[in-house]
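Subject: sequence -> structure tokens, single chain

Hey, anyone have a minute? Need the predicted structure for the following. Not urgent.
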Amino acid sequence: MIKIEYVNLNINFRKATTLLPRYAYKYYIRKNCKRVSNSYKYRDAAPNPTKLIEISPRDIEYLVRPNFHDRLFPYDTYILDGNWDLVNQKEPQLTPIEDYWRLQSLENRFNNNCEWEETELYNRWSPNWRQDRSHITIEDKCSDLDELYTQITNNGYQSQRELSLKAISLPLGEAHGGVSTFPEPEYHEICINIGRDGRLIFDEGRHRMCISYLSNVESIPVRVLVRHKEWQSIRTQIANADDVSDLGEEVKQYVNHPDVSALI
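Reply:
Had a minute. Here:
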């Protein structure tokens, strides 16, 4: 059983601006200390929070709810034990990606030509829409999703770093407002978790993942937020082997997995 304390982020803007340098300092100290510790413990298989891997969206079978991105410090990567990667657990719970209501809503919109008002997404948003979103309406948000679908369908999936570089080169006022570059663009990619058997489990980046899934994009860059402890053991064995032939059959079956192929 995993017990993770939720972090209270309800702080006002003035307090946030005062504390930001302190948080930034703690972030870099934490990042560097953990990187040294992981490098010593796992050597070539040490997890890197900004290292991206390429996967096919169609290889994602499940999503986890509640997700780890909202329960852990998001600018990091973790190795966790427990049964969180197994089906039929009460919490966290794995749901087949095809049953994800957000994916079904976007499929109805883009593949079945439904109006936004006919989708579950719109009807979930509508009663609880906050009016403090800088005057952004539900219609504005839906229009943004239409634009995102068009961009990915026509231009392919672009990484956050590619988008940030493009935003920098655009005239003032034309940069994509949704691109974040703090602390690094890689931290804002779609997040996945990897179970003990190498299973890819979606965690965060909902609309981009769903649209990539529906657009039949061949591959997308993702960041691994959580790895199961047993999966990390497999990665370490592969990284430490002098040759693939030295691996047992149980481990050898994973040598083409996107999370270990770069270790060979």
